[in-house]
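User: Hi! I'm working on a homework problem where we have to compare a predicted structure to a textbook description. Could you give me the structure for the chain below?
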Amino acid sequence: MEKVSGTTVELVLAELKRIRRELQRLEDLLMEESSELSEEEIEELIKEARDESVEWVKLEELPKPED
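Assistant: Happy to help. Predicted structure tokens:
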């Protein structure tokens, strides 16, 4: 197994933090757009929510993406 310097680890961690911030920003942009649903879209969502054949899964229960 190859050794990794502390500086390399710090650089990777800093880049991961930057990527997380960017992902959060993009997610916030998407959420802003999705808040403007049409009446037809709202009716379709309500219909799907009441449909017992649809299996709903909480976001927290989904597998996390692998790094």
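For your comparison, note the following. DSSP finds two helices and no strands in the chain. The radius of gyration is 20 Å. Good luck with the assignment!
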